[in-house]
Task: inverse folding
């Protein structure tokens, strides 16, 4: 089974050191990584000639191992090394390589470029001469492969350290996933992602890549209340809460109620609309979860409706307007609360809870700890943070989700999952996966309504 952990540079270095302390040499690790990467390069090259750009560190050492492996198998290989190897393991790998090495890319000829210039330890921009060599070789290659990370990418943040970096067809992660493999903007440069295992153990506290959940059909003796009653609280703009309710109806809950002052004319027949005063409607002890925020508004009535929801201890999803109105004193200690902010709302919540963090992931992580809420920082690369420190990162979702109302659908799915009895973090993870799967299944240029009615298809895919 492929590991789902995502490591920082420091965590990866510590994990490799643990292998070394247990008796595995750096040279052996380099051979394992290089040979594993060479298998992928061999397949992608499919007989075509290969140029491998090697740097001075262990990433360059991996390149020499790859080159020798391919050369020994009869492939035409050239190595371009603007700088000689500086680590002992890289020097040994260079000595073991029996093929051609060039110090300049001018005479290099290859259909496939393998970038082993700099790996995950890079923290500053490529020097101009190295960036020029990389761009020149990339412009002449038919296929581009990055080993560990594309050169010019910062591993922990996913930042692009240079302008004009090439787009790769494939990136071969060595040992474990790094944040840059799944974070934007770096993810957009990497093409297909493959993980080359080298024996790294699971690291305590490491972030995880969001995976497909394993959902189940209702129990044989299930009824609508045992499957969970999800209440969606409406407000000034009923369309958004109605959209959330439609998604919640297909997200696993057995019963969905829309709590509004006035029944919307377009509500589906299967949706129960409750127009009783909110406090009374919320007193139903059968309610398993509540969603508040989509279409709520931001006036005094909206504030009162939010306070009424948070006055009860039931599991709650806060979205949209509720996130802008939320104040720390409204939250009960120990309550199961999931907040689903986009970047602007995340910034507002950070101000509300006095969180000081520049980077998006750090902001979500700290906010979860300070507030006690599970934070689903939604966007093209959604980050899920729990108060206990767990971090999950979702693979970048379909760009077609960048349309109004798709967040309301996500919130409805999450509330539905919480109604079935899932804790806030598990519900958030399941909802984000289902939301991404719905977008994948839907036709391009879909609307939020299209998404809501196709939640059942994504649910079926996880059974």
Result:
């Amino acid at each position: 089974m492929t590991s789902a952990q995502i490591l920082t540079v420091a965590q990866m270095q510590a994990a490799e050191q643990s292998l070394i302390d247990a008796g595995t040499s750096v040279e052996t690790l380099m051979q394992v990584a290089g040979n594993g990467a060479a298998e992928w390069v061999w397949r992608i090259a499919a007989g075509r000639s290969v140029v491998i750009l090697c740097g001075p560190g262990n990433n360059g050492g991996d390149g020499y191992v790859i080159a020798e492996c391919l050369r020994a198998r009869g492939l035409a290989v050239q190595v371009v090394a603007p700088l000689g190897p500086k680590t002992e393991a890289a020097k040994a790998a260079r000595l073991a390589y029996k093929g051609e090495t060039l110090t300049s890319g001018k005479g290099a000829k290859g259909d496939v470029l393998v970038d082993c210039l700099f790996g995950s330890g890079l923290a500053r921009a490529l020097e101009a001469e190295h960036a020029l060599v990389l761009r020149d070789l990339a412009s002449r290659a038919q296929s581009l492969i990055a080993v560990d990370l594309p050169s010019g990418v910062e591993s922990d943040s996913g930042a692009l350290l240079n302008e004009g970096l090439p787009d790769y067809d494939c990136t071969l992660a060595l040992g474990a996933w790094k944040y840059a493999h799944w974070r934007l903007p770096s993810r957009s440069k990497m093409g297909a992602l493959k993980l080359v295992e080298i024996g790294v153990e699971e690291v305590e506290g490491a972030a995880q890549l969001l995976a497909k959940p394993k959902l189940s059909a209702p129990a044989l003796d299930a009824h609508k209340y045992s499957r969970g009653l999800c209440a969606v609280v409406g407000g000034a703009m009923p369309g958004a809460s109605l959209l959330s309710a439609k998604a919640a109806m297909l997200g696993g809950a057995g019963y969905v109620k829309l709590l509004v002052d006035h029944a919307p004319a377009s509500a589906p027949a299967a949706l129960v609309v409750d127009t009783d005063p909110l406090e009374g409607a919320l007193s139903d002890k059968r309610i398993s979860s509540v969603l508040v925020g989509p279409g709520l508004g931001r006036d005094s009535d909206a504030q009162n409706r939010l306070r009424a929801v948070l006055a009860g201890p039931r599991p709650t999803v806060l979205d949209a307007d509720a996130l802008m109105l939320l104040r720390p004193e409204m939250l009960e200690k120990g309550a199961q609360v999931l907040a689903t902010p986009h970047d602007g709302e995340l910034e507002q919540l950070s101000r509300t809870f006095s969180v000081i963090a520049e980077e998006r992931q750090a902001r979500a992580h700290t906010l979860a700890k300070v507030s006690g809420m599970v934070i689903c920082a939604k966007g093209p690369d959604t980050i899920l943070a729990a108060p206990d420190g767990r971090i999950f990162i979702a693979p970048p979702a379909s760009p077609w989700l960048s349309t109004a109302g798709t967040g309301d659908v996500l919130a409805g799915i999450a509330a539905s999952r919480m109604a079935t009895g899932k804790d806030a973090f598990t519900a958030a993870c399941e909802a984000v996966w289902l939301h991404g799967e719905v977008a994948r299944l839907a036709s391009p240029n879909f609307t939020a309504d299209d998404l809501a009615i196709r939640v059942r298809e994504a649910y079926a895919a996880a059974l």
